[in-house]
Amino acid sequence: MGKYSGxxxxxxxxxxLAASDGTIPGRxxxxxxxFIAEGGRFTVSTGxxxxxxxxxxxxxxNAPVLLANGGMIYDYAAGTVTELLGLDDGCIxxxxxxxxxxxxxxxxxxxxxxxxxxxxxxxxIHLNDRSRRHFAGHRIVPREICDPSExxxxxxxxxxxxxxxxxxxxxxxxxxxAARADGPTLGFVxxxxxxxxxxxxxxxxxxxxxxxxxxxxxARENVYVIGxxxxxxxxxxxxxAAFVPANGDPAAKKHASYLVCSNDDGAVADAIERxxxxx
Length: 279
Description:
Radius of gyration: 18 Å
CATH class of the largest domain: Alpha Beta
Helix content: 25-40%
Distance between the termini: 13 Å
Number of strands: 14
CATH architecture of the largest domain: 3-Layer(aba) Sandwich
Mean pLDDT: 94
Low-confidence stretches: none
Number of helices: 9
Shape: globular
Strand order of the largest sheet: 8-7-6-9-11-10
């Protein structure tokens, strides 16, 4: 039994595990290897999707990875989906309404299709410049479609991309739709930016991380989390201890048990050191 046996540490990727230049600092790599050597389980919880996450390293990640802000748990070691908690085709009518109401917004759909490699079918309706930049940054070439029904389901998540004012209006629209008697088909992570994450209602990084912990046989009181953004708040809330790097958003810092150094200085290494003290 190692010092960290029975502990799961989940880290956000962009802005947390990765430095500003997209690399993982040497100090962090060394800390994670030591954590794993002492029995710890380390994973990444990211908004990136299966075709957009390129940082899997079996030397650093020894548990299934949470993708699409909780929409999918993927076991890279086995090459299989542990759980897919995405949107089903019941959301098509509401997606059509968004497309009709906001034709300037791109609608990115991250579907699952086992006949494709790497088993993902990324589609886009109303492809715009903001969405092109988003896809390029993740090295994804989408399949352009005209209607949500042409996508593969389930979708790990959907994203709307466009101007801030259109994204704000779309959030108001989705909030109003959620108040219907028959319930919402689309949940979302609130944002003030130009990209809106749309998930199955009730799915987020926190709920899915608890499902992963259960799958691994790890008690909630042994689940630790580090993240920097609004989309990390749900998992920060459920952690035994929540760490937020110095570069984190003010909203995330409100949910921190401990503030650590910036991602450029090795935030995850700081978190692991603190967990060692808490143990």
